[in-house]
Design a protein that fits this description.
- This protein has three domains: 148 residues, Conserved hypothetical protein from pyrococcus furiosus pfu- 392566-001, ParB domain, CATH 3.90.1530.10; 74 residues, no CATH class; 247 residues, Rossmann fold (3-Layer(aba) Sandwich), CATH 3.40.50.
- The chain is globular.
- Helices cover 39% and strands 13% of the residues.
- It has 476 residues and is α/β, with parallel strands linked by helices.
- α15 links the parallel β6 and β7.
- It has a seven-stranded mixed sheet with strand order 8-7-6-9-10-12-11, sandwiched between helices. Strands 1-5-3-4-2 form a five-stranded mixed sheet.
Length: 476
């Protein structure tokens, strides 16, 4: 890599989030730097690279906080090292410069590793680890699902969709093939399964077989656990079974589902399946997100139809693209025309306001309180019209209170959405609950600093979450 050092206008420098390894700017740190500048302190030059598509502009590689401080103090020109990266990944180079007094956090390291691998799948774990200051084994854990998804060939996709009970005509449409081709490929599925079952019978672990054949672990689990009852499946998967109505899981099982905003533990989905469905039942996940439900259904021997507004045909072919649009002239529509009707609905929608910035702009999380509740009411009516009378629903949601910076004693009812509000809507639309199961979110999502600040102000945070299980039979 070559470089030159010169004075350049501050206004010619941009912060390109595509190559910035941190989650954001620390404004407290910027304020300290600004004070240092006013006191005459001189910083090392910032590092930049020419923008590939914007002549005359430069992308920051190192010094985002210094650059922000220069802007806030009105400085017009700064000394900068202009790098020619000569084909090296600018994101990983920027990450190497972040291993200083303020290292990348665990979330930032994971995100950087995944972004770098998504841009260039030929990168090794060692190369990425060297850049972000993590071991090769740690990087492997960050990238497991991405690598598995990248290796998913046509036969594996067809096997996966068929295993989840998706009809051949929909498989053909999803993969852009004719139905005869799908039929021919399905004839080869027993041979594919035979190879993997052979390795499993010789004592290879599920993860080893998945790595060898390029399958995802949930697909291999679907073979390894075939014919077993739910109790034995739990035992093989290493999941204890919660007998009572409090299901508390602090960590997600990384074998199931993608790294996704609002990701829920596969153990939670598995408990719902075990308690409220039977093997080979059809499960509907209308907002499937990172795919935890279909992955868990594979391991638990259930069929699953999953939909989401994010279309990922290469990595998540089983999640069919669909947007639940209440604003259309026809109102909410059912996503498929099919004879099959679900035995159980697992509905884990994006929660009101939480992580709204992380979801697609069409997500219901960003709706107003009124619009969010109106959507749910219309959605519950639509479900009732398109499922069997015996169909149950497991609705997963949490209390929402605007507790930020507000002592508990000062909180008002107005603006919140509590479990009572959901229960009122469900009953009004003909859904009657049989169980309310506590499934709290981990308190670990609050950092020690946040907890300390909350304690000083008597702020009461929210980790409540509930699984409300409902049927359509009321008191009559």
């Amino acid at each position: 890599m070559t470089q030159q050092t010169k004075q350049i206008p501050v206004s010619s420098i941009i912060l390109d989030e595509d190559i910035y390894p941190r989650k954001g700017i620390d404004h407290r740190r910027v304020g300290i730097f600004a004070e240092n500048i006013r006191d005459g302190f001189t910083f090392d030059p910032i590092e930049v690279a020419p923008c590939p598509d914007k002549p005359g502009l430069f992308r920051l590689l190192d010094g985002a906080h210094r650059w922000s401080a220069y802007k806030s103090t009105g400085i017009e020109e700064v000394k900068a090292i202009i790098k020619d990266l000569e084909g090296n990944d600018p994101l990983l180079y920027a990450a190497t410069k972040a291993i200083g007094p303020k290292q990348l956090t665990e979330d930032e390291s994971r995100d950087t590793a995944r972004r770098a691998y998504s841009r260039d799948s030929s990168l090794s774990s060692a190369d990425i680890g060297k850049a972000i200051g993590r071991s090769r084994q740690t990087v492997d854990s960050y990238l497991t699902d991405l690598r598995a998804s990248n290796r998913m060939g046509l036969d594996i996709k067809i096997f996966r969709l068929n295993r989840l009970g998706i009809p051949q005509d929909r498989i053909a449409k999803r993969l852009g093939l004719d139905q005869k081709t799908i039929h021919n490929h399905l004839g080869e599925m027993p041979a594919l399964a035979f190879l993997l079952n052979g390795d499993l019978s010789r004592g290879f672990s599920v993860s080893q077989v998945a790595e060898k054949h390029g399958w995802t672990e949930p697909m291999v689990w679907s073979l390894a656990l075939e014919g077993k009852n739910d109790h034995d499946r739990f035992k093989e998967l290493g999941w204890g079974f919660c007998t009572w109505d409090k299901w508390e899981f602090n960590d997600c099982d990384n074998r199931f589902g993608d790294d996704w905003p609002g990701r829920i533990p596969a153990q939670l989905i598995a408990h719902i399946l075990r308690c409220f469905s039977k093997p080979d039942d059809l499960i509907l996940d209308p907002m499937a997100g990172g795919g935890v439900t279909p992955d868990t259904c594979l391991a638990m021997g259930r069929r699953c139809w999953a939909f989401d507004l994010m279309d990922r045909p290469d990595t998540r072919p089983e999640i069919e693209p669909f947007t639940w649009d209440i604003s259309s002239d026809q109102g909410l529509l059912w996503p498929v025309s099919a004879k099959g009707k679900p035995d159980l609905i697992i509905f884990d929608p994006p929660y009101f306001d939480k992580k709204a910035a992380d979801y697609d702009k069409k997500s219901i999380s960003g709706l107003s309180r009124k619009a969010y509740l109106e959507f749910l009411e219309a959605f519950f009516v639509l479900l009732k019209q398109n499922v069997k009378k015996t169909t149950r629903m497991a609705f997963i949601n949490a209390d929402w209170r605007d507790f930020q910076n507000t002592p508990a004693i000062e909180e008002k009812y107005k603006g919140g959405i509590l479990i009572d509000d959901y229960l009122d809507i469900l009953k009004r639309t003909g859904w009657y609950h049989t169980h309310i199961i506590q499934a709290p979110m981990s308190s670990q999502r609050f950092t020690a600093g946040v907890v300390s600040a909350m304690q000083k102000k008597n702020i009461l945070g929210v980790i409540s979450r509930y699984v409300i299980v409902l049927g359509q039979q009321g008191l009559e």
